[in-house]
Each structure stands twice: as structure tokens, then as C-alpha cells.
Amino acid sequence: MNRFIAFVVGMLLAIPASALSVAFINPGKSNEAYWVAVAESMKVAAQSLGIELEMRFVERDHPRALAIAQEIATRPKAARPDYVMLTGDYGLGTKLLNIFEGTGIQCFFAFSPPNAGEQADVGTPRQRYKSWIGSLQPHAIDAGYLTAQALIARGRAARAQGPDGRLHLLAIAGDRSTAVSIQRNEGMRRAVSDAGDVMLDQEVYADWSRDKAVEQSDVLYARYPAARLIWAGSDQMAFGAMQSWEKRGGKPGQDAWFSGVNTSREAMDAVKSGRLTALAGGHFIAGAWALVMIYDHANGRDFVDEGLELDRPMFVLFDAGSADRFLARFGDSYEKINFRKYSKVLNPQIKRYNFSFSQLMR
User: Fold this and answer.
1) How many CB atoms lie within 10 A of CB 80?
2) Is 272 exposed, middle or buried (0-12, 13-18, 19+ CB in 10 A)?
3) Is 322 helix (H, G, I), strand (E, B) or coil?
4) Cα–Cα distances in Å, from 261 out to 66, 188, 231?
5) Distant-in-sequence, close-in-space partners of 164: CB < 8 Å, separation ≥ 6
6) How far apart are CA 342 and CA 283, in angstroms?
7) Which of 111, 260, 343, 358 has the greatest number of CB atoms lying within 10 Å of its CB?
8) Contact indicator for 41, 263 with CB cutoff of 8 Å
9) Residues 193/235/217/209 CA torsion (nearest 10 deg)
10) Which residue(s) pair with 57 in the sheet?
11) DSSP-assigned states of every residue in 102-135
């Protein structure tokens, strides 16, 4: 009994007297499937861990991220969050860190850290910017590699080679400056290089937009008539490319093959129907995992022993069976996930974080 009482007292001491508060400057739209999934999973994690979570959507108006950051940073001290979670989308990392430095708010980058071009300015966490405590990003190269690899395998099986005997692939990427976009593209190119029988005809940037992907695909299909494999850096851009193909009388999954990234219901349904050949996802959970790390950091369990800039595998390559399992387990809710199980403070036996999504699918 004494041992039990000591355990309970220890758990209570691990909980701050006042609730831990975290603000997230979400770069997406408040009706955008991926970033809504990010927000919903973070809400569940925050509730599990007793965190007060403030969610601010930028609505993909990227200068607005700086305005939101400025508003948070200039609040009266008592109204400021303990931590702010940021993304390095569109190369804004340096500017965001400049806003929060010296405010007493600790900064954590999730999804996209400052990109390579900013490294000379920002350095590494806890050095030049004392408020920047660390970062967590999904290993985005996996998303590009796995989807391109599956797409190429399907093209070979369908004997979709052009007159030159090679498979021809078009790539519709997100943007040029966000780290995860760059890395997804790198993974795709690596799969093309490894294949040896694939020609990457052209790579364009649709800025994550379905409509822009339609416009670009209209031009690409006319320019490269032998291309039958279309790789996209997100599900929405894949759907834009599919829409363009259908306008030409084509049938996705039958005479051209498409890949995407993310776990929207529309994407899962497309995988199940065969319209979408390859889909990688699960990385939306990175925000929730980041809250676990922040909770532990705030309660005296630093993650410095694992590294200050974590790049961890999170992606799952979905097929029809795993898409069914995902929808059955989660649907539109992540309430079944108990994030307390993954905290080192609450589970002292954990020595290393496991941030894979596959463990949540079991």
C-alpha cells in the first residue's frame, strides 16, 4: 500500500499546479482534410495530457502566420502560452523565431523545421535562439519513396512503358521551400533512380492546390503523351491530376496510375476503389506526438538524450485492406488513442519514443 501511495504522490507531483498551455500556428485551412486531422488528433492528445491547446489556422495565407505569432508574443505575460508549436512552411522559420525570442514562450517546430537555406541563420535548437527547444518531423523521404516505388511497380505490371521501352513519370510537388515538400520530392527521385527503367519527364509545383494541379496536368499530358505514372506530393494534388486525366477521357487506375500522400476519407476511398494506386499517410499524428514531447519537457523529462531535432518514421503505405482498417478504427475521430501511454513522464520505463503510425493501426 505504501508503494502505491508513493506512486500516486509521484504522479501528482508530475502534474503542474496550473495547466500547461500550448498554442499551435496551423499553416493549413480550417476546412482542409489533412490539417483538420492534425488539429483533431492534437485535441485528443491535449485532453489526454491535461494541456490547454490553442489552435490558430493560417488558412494558407502564409504572411498571416507572422501576424498571429506577433499577436501571441505581445500579449500580457499572464496570457501568453507556455509553448508555441510552429511549422517551417515557406521558409518562415527564422522570422517566427525572431518574434518569440525573449518573450518567455518556448518554441517547438513540428512537421517542418527551418529549411536548409535557413540553417546559417537559425543554427540548432538552444544555441542562437534560446527559446527554440527542438523539433520533430516525419521522415518525409519515406512518403516520396514508398509511393513512387509502388507506382513504378504497378506501371511495370500494367506494361505501361512508352515507345522507348521506359516508364514515364510526371511529378506534381507541393512547394519549393518547405522542408517536407523538398524531402518528399527527394524520396520520389530516389525511387526513380533506383528503378533504372523510369524517366521523370517533368516535375512541377502546384502549391498543394487541387485546382492548380488540374491546370498543370492539362499541359503536362499534352506535352508528354507517353507518361502514364503520375506522382503527387499530396492527395489533393493527385485528385487534381486525376480530374484532368478524366477530362481527356482517361480512367485513373486503368490507363494511368496515380499516387498521393495523406489520409483523407476521399483518399482512402480512392485506394479502395483502385482509382488511387499508392497512398502514404499517418504523419498527421506528428502534432500529437509533439505534444507528448512538450508535456514531458515541461514536467522535467527532457528529450535531449534522443536529440533536439528528431526525424522519425511515421508513414504507412496504404492498400485497400489497411485503408479499411484505418477507417474502421478511426473514422473521423481519434478518441481511441490514449496518448498518455507514450509519455516518458507517465511511463518511466520508456527509454525511446516510438512515433510510428503503424502501432496505432493494430
Assistant:
1) 18
2) middle
3) helix
4) 27, 12, 10
5) 199, 226
6) 16
7) 260
8) no
9) -120
10) 26
11) TSS-EEEEESS---GGGHHHH-STTSS-TTEEEE
Q: What pTM, to 2 d.p., does this model score?
A: 0.89
DSSP state, residue 32: -
Sheet architecture: strand order including 278-281: 198-205, 167-173, 229-232, 257-261, 278-281, 316-318
* Placement of cell 496510375 in the chain: 257
CATH architecture, range 141-261: 3-Layer(aba) Sandwich (3.40)
Architecture of the CATH domain 2-138+283-316+332-361: 3-Layer(aba) Sandwich (3.40)
What residue ranges do the domains of the chain occupy? 2-138+283-316+332-361, 141-261
In DSSP terms, which residues pair with 313 in a beta bridge?
Answer: none
Q: Which of 278-292, 304-318, 329-343 has the lowest mean pLDDT?
A: 329-343
pLDDT single digits (tens) 305-332: 999 999 999 999 999 999 999 999 998 6
Q: How many CB atoms lie within 10 A of CB 292?
A: 25
Domains 2-138+283-316+332-361 and 141-261 share a fold: yes
Give the distance, in angstroms, between the CA of residue 65 and the centroid of all CA atoms in the same chain.
18
CB of 262 within 8 A of CB of 318? Answer: no
